[in-house]
Amino acid sequence: HGRLEATLPGVRLDGSGSAAVARHVPRIISSLDSLCESIGELRGGSSYSLFSAPRGESVEGDIKRISAATPSSGAAIGATAVPHRFSAAAAAVSGTTVVWGGIEPIPLAAPSVSELAASGVSGACSGAVQVTFSGSDSAGTPYSTVRTFALPDYTPTALSPLIVYPDARATAIRVAVGALWVKVPLTASPDGRSAYYLAPDLLPVAISQSGSAAVPAANPPKLPIPGGMIVADAADPFMPRASAELPGGSIVAVAEGARSRSSWDFARRHFYLFATSGIYALSVGSRGAGLSVARISPAEVTAPAVAAMPQGVAAIAGGRLVMVSGSVVRTLADVDAGGATALGYDPSRGELWIGGPDAAATRVLADDGFIYERTPGVDALRGSGGRLWIAARGGVLRLTGTDEPEPAAASLVKIFWEGRAVAGGRG
Prior knowledge:
Elements: H1 18-30, H2 32-35, E1 37-43, E2 47-52, H3 59-67, H4 75-80, E3 85-94, E4 97-106, H5 113-116, E5 117-121, E6 125-136, E7 142-151, E8 155-159, E9 162-165, E10 170-177, E11 180-185, E12 187-188, E13 195-198, E14 205-206, E15 209-210, E16 225-233, E17 236-245, E18 251-256, E19 269-275, E20 278-284, E21 292-297, E22 306-309, E23 312-317, E24 320-325, E25 328-336, E26 342-346, E27 351-355, E28 362-365, E29 371-374, E30 378-384, E31 387-392, E32 396-399, E33 413-414
Antiparallel strand pairs: 1-2, 3-4, 4-16, 5-8, 6-7, 6-10, 8-14, 9-13, 10-11, 11-15, 12-13, 16-17, 18-19, 19-20, 20-21, 22-23, 23-24, 24-25, 26-27, 27-28, 28-29, 30-31, 31-32, 32-33
């Protein structure tokens, strides 16, 4: 394992100046982006960034720079950024920007004991590290993650006086080595991205409590953020740059919006968020800067069915077929879309297909406004290469652009599984 050596200006090795550390360390933890600059990256089983903070000309100058540092922001980022993971209900890409919606953080396992140990002795040992989070499941069991370990030639005897875990929801860390253990409380950092413990005397924390060596059962937190959204770069889609959360509702779909023609807004990317609390317009600048969200319709959206058309983005809201363009949401046609779960646009014919398992039949809206029905029903619609494919009932795949009542047998493909994966970046 590696070791990070840090210089705290104005603090002596004898432990004096602990009050200064208590003031500065939380700010340093929350302001690494502004205090440090990246000097490289280590890649292996995991990826780690290396940071360096150039020392000032004087201790007083360093202290002033720390005091003036600007904390980062975004608790959702802290709970989802590497080394954590996350799942999302929907996503869309516009240029170099990715927006994820309907977030559920997947927390990092408890840290390795080697990352926490400050001292130790020779000899084999085994044990476990447990991180406890705020909240509990329906049975009242607190949320936690656990990592077990077995070291062949090293036995930790004390933990570092400063421990940081990258999730502000963490409330304590317990380390058990053989029949000895120690538990330290964690405090949320000012930026909401992490939690930390700082020993009052700045000295290593001895692993000296005696007790059971039993490994506690893990109970990973399941704390979804249904109205949460994350903005990332397409080149690194799993590294959040900015985040926000709707005041209510769950995001079920995300779609790319048209770019603004205004000179001051041209460089920004635009998206639509479709949620159970309405339809929202999202605007974001480079690398997630200047994120803004505004509700443009209170109509409820429950199905992840959206389709991009030349006129805008079609969706099913409040049981009706609507078109979203700019900041305007209008009824596209007098079609009862209740029960529909799929939308797809066929550019070769100028047709919008509406379907779903609960729909009596598949309804088609032609570019001249004429509405007609087709059978069989549609389970899913997917556009590819300027053509629209139907996953029809019974697991049959077919194109919408055929006038044949039944396609040739060679074009029938049974569909047993459907999925999508993003290559590149971190995953």
